[in-house]
Every structure is written in structure tokens, then in C-alpha cells.
Amino acid sequence: MKVIFFSHSTCMLEIHDKLLLIDPFFSGNPIFRNTNFLNFFQKIDYILLTHAHYDHVCDVELFSHKFNNILVISNYEISNYFNKKGIKTYGMNYGSFISFPFGKLKYVWAAHSSAFYDGTYGGNPGGFLLHTDEGNLYISGDTSVIYEMSIIPSFGNLKLSILPIGGKYTMDVEEALIASDFLKCEKILGVHYDTFEDIKINKKQAKRKFFEKGKELILLEKGKTIHV
């Protein structure tokens, strides 16, 4: 499995021949200033949306117009919102694993809020637990540390967890460390930091805090890749 980090919480997963884009935030992103970002992509099969905030959903329609066969996967309310715009969607909620060609996906808990830019209710915020034949991955979405994370390892060991670390709106570095204990996961990809002034972090210090606990905090530059 390949994970490409673009910036903020936007990542892409490559699982065999399937490409999954997570929480696309390019056009309004102060870090990603290239207005031709759509040209970087030759194919996208799925878009996964953790919640309805602008910095996670703003480019869904742009991608869906370029790639007509994209399937948007999110909670029931977000899926309905985009389905009414003519976009193919798959709605789910906190429940069982659902099988897709790339693996099994489960929508899981997050402690946050969820509303579209126009004020439309975005349903319950969440994250995704992804089980594949290449390993298991947890995408927390925007959240505080919550005790429900401790349930996640009971479904299977995690190779990687993607956690926000910027603080203020989500977990900070110290809380992400607690989350990694709940998750029994030693390798964390940090997201949702440095995009805006109020979520800037000391990256060297953050990585050291994880290292001192025998864990790895991965902080990728824009467009860089890791293999899981």
C-alpha cells in the first residue's frame, strides 16, 4: 500500500490498482497554491470524506467532474448532499465493515463537528478503519483523543494510523501520543498541522516526543510518499 501526502489532511492511498483520495483540499489551501492541481491526477477511483468541513470536502465536485466514475464514500448525510449534485456516492454510518474492491471499510467514531460551508448539516463526523490484504490502516479524521480508539485494535493490528496533530481544532502531539497507545500503533502519519497559523507546530520537537516513547511520527513534505 502506498500513501501520498499532499498537505493538511489530504492523502491518497494506492491499493493494488485502486486510488483512494482522502478529504481533498487543494483549491482553498494556502500551502497548495498550484491552480492546475487537477492535472496532477490521471485517475481516481474513490474519494473518502471524514466530515463536511470546507477544508476536507471543497474539491469533491471538481474531481467528480473530471473523473466521472468516482465513488464518494462518507457518512449518510454527506453522501446524500453530493448525490443530489449528481455525484455517485455510498453512504454509511457507525456500523459494520463494508467490502469494496480495495478491501473492507468501517466508518468509526470521531469527536468533532460536521457542517458544510453553506450551513447544511454534515452528519456525524468520523474516521475510517481500512482492512486490506496489504495491511490495516486507521484514518482518524479530525478528532480529539477518544477512548473509543482503544476498541480499534480488537478488529486487527494496524500498520499505520493517520492522526491530526495541529491542536486547537483536533488532537495535538501529546494527545496523538495517547491515541497511539490506545491504538497499539507504533507508526503515525501526522496530518492537519502547519496549514494555518493557529495549527503550526514544532516538527522537530514533535518527532522527538514520539521517538522518546519508542514510536515513529512521520511528517511528510507535500507530494511525498511512504509505503506501508
Structure notes:
It is a single chain. The strands form 2 sheets. A 7-stranded mixed β-sheet has the order 6-5-4-3-2-1-14, with helices on one face. Strands 7-8-9-10-11-12-13 form a 7-stranded mixed β-sheet. It has a single domain (2-221), classed as Metallo-beta-lactamase, Chain A. The chain has 5 helices and 14 strands. By secondary structure, the chain is α/β, with parallel strands linked by helices. The longest helix has 11 residues, at 173-183. It has helices spanning 54-57, 60-66, 76-83, 173-183, 203-212; strands at 2-7, 10-15, 18-22, 46-48, 71-75, 89-92, 98-100, 103-109, 126-132, 135-139, 160-164, 187-191, 216-218, 225-227.
Relevant terms:
seven-stranded mixed beta sheet, globular, 18% helix, 228 residues, Metallo-beta-lactamase, Chain A, 5 helices, alpha/beta
Shape: globular
Number of domains: 1
CATH architecture: 4-Layer Sandwich
The CATH homology group name: Ribonuclease Z/Hydroxyacylglutathione hydrolase-like
Q: Proportion of β residues?
A: 25-35%
SS content category: alpha/beta
Query: What radius of gyration results from the CA coordinates?
Result: 16 Å
Helix count from the secondary structure assignment:
5
The biggest beta sheet reads: 7 strands, mixed
Summarize the structure.
With 228 residues, the protein is an alpha/beta fold. 18% of the residues lie in helices and 29% in strands. A hairpin with a 2-residue loop joins β2 (10-15) and β3 (18-22).
Topology:
Elements: E1 2-7, E2 10-15, E3 18-22, E4 46-48, H1 54-57, H2 60-66, E5 71-75, H3 76-83, E6 89-92, E7 98-100, E8 103-109, E9 126-132, E10 135-139, E11 160-164, H4 173-183, E12 187-191, H5 203-212, E13 216-218, E14 225-227
Parallel strand pairs: 3-4, 4-5, 5-6, 10-11, 11-12, 12-13
Antiparallel strand pairs: 1-2, 1-14, 2-3, 7-8, 8-9, 9-10
